Amino acid sequence: MDRNIRTVDDVLALLDGLFAPEADRWTGRGGEWWDGFYADRSRPVPFFVAKPDENLASCVERGVIGGGRALELGCGPGRNALYLAERGFEVDAVDLSPAAVDWARERAREAGADGVRFHCGDAFALAGTELTGPYDLVFDSGCFHHLPPHRRISYLALLDDVLAPGGLFGLTCFAAGAGGMGSELTRYTDASCAAMPRSGTCSTPVPVPS
User: What is the C-alpha separation between 13 and 21, in angstroms, rounded?
Assistant: First the structure.
């Protein structure tokens, strides 16, 4: 482990390295675990179904969210990214898992979807290169709650970098009784959640002040 600490990113990387490899769900080395998770496409997992997040669909259909550029964090097999692309958004979607991104691209080909680009890798590392803002919407359904508390700093920095002034940020995270998938409400105390001021489960994307 490199213990030469010069920047905040060095500190965050050092903290990442304190976790056992099999516990990592958020850096590039976590992609293999997620590939195993996505290997069986028949599993009864809600976000394996080719339907968008209900909160996202409700906001689009009620006109809360208009068109523009959108970024989906932790896109999995692409259900939300494809929904947005079908409704005229220009979409970038990113996931750590090659298996998930392959599945999403298959769905895009089958649907004949245009206006969506799937990226495989660490969103923090890809910001500013492949994921180039500004985005009118950043949406996350199920990614945030897999981050350890120290990586919430990186998450906020990512939003600051890519979200357009006055853009919308939608977040659905944590779930009671999630069966060990990493999204259990009991994994974090109220104090640790306070480190992420815009955390929680949002049914309506919130505007970020310009």
Answer: 13
